[in-house]
Amino acid sequence: MKKLLIAILFSPMLALAAGAQLHLDSAPDKASDMAALQNGAKIFVNYCLNCHSASYMRYNRLKDIGLSDAQIKDNLLFTAEKVGEPMKIAMQRAEAKVWFGAAPPDLTVIARARASEFGSGADWLYTYLRTFYRDENRPTGWNNVVFENVGMPHVLWELQGDQVMGADHKLKLVKPGKLKPQEFDAAVGDLVAFLKYMGEPMAEFRKQLGVIVLIFLAVIFVFAYALKREYWKDVH
């Protein structure tokens, strides 16, 4: 009983210690880069939206990143008929669980969810999507450095190519993909930026509004202080 109590008390510390050993690469900040967000949306729709839904995100929110209704309909509207519909998929969760062992999670707030676990959801996603490697012992033929024994295959393998885990425990690219390593990293950065955007589409507006409010309060403070001095100048 005593050992059990000790384990319960110290398990959070042990979990933090284990998580601290995980190295995450820093994701590029592209929150205000409209071209990057648009490319990220294209990659998401073409490579992720087949299995993963984003059911709390509507296609018409893509207009916030500079796309028109016509561009959305012609290039991105694969799983719906109207731009006002959410980004859902046809695959049922029950069927997905049978096929994959677990239903692929909805990705609308995946960046925020990973942030609650690892401090930076963008960094976790950026590292995760770039560290798949061939592993013949896995059912899908793929494994991942960040998410060991993950059930998800490497859906971006055509772009990145094939990586293997070397004897020195470092990843090595043995078969190049369609993109050069630097180009693939940039594409993943665009995708991660879009995933982060979906979690809070109004984030940039909120930050801009916060700056405006602080400037307004600073100006008001100057006038309020001047008024206070004028009222109290004859009081000794």
From TrEMBL:
Cofactor names from the entry are: heme c
Pfam families found in the cross-reference section: Cytochrom_C1
Superkingdom, according to UniProt?
Bacteria
- The UniProt record gives the binding positions of heme c as C48, C51, H52
The Cytochrome c domain extends over 35-199
Q: Which GO terms describe its molecular function?
A: electron transfer activity; heme binding; metal ion binding
Q: Which Gene3D superfamilies does the protein's record reference?
A: Cytochrome c-like domain, Cytochrome c1, transmembrane anchor, C-terminal
What keywords appear on the UniProt entry? Heme, Iron, Membrane, Metal-binding, Signal, Transmembrane, Transmembrane helix
Primary location: membrane
Q: How is the cofactor bound?
A: Binds 1 heme c group covalently per subunit.
Tell me where it resides. Answer: Membrane
Secretion signal, residue range per the UniProt entry = 1-17
For the keyword Iron, the answer is yes
The record lists the membrane-crossing segments as: 209-227
Q: Which GO terms describe its cellular component?
A: membrane
InterPro entries the record matches: Cyt_c-like_dom, Cyt_c-like_dom_sf, Cyt_c1
Q: What is this protein called?
A: Cytochrome c1
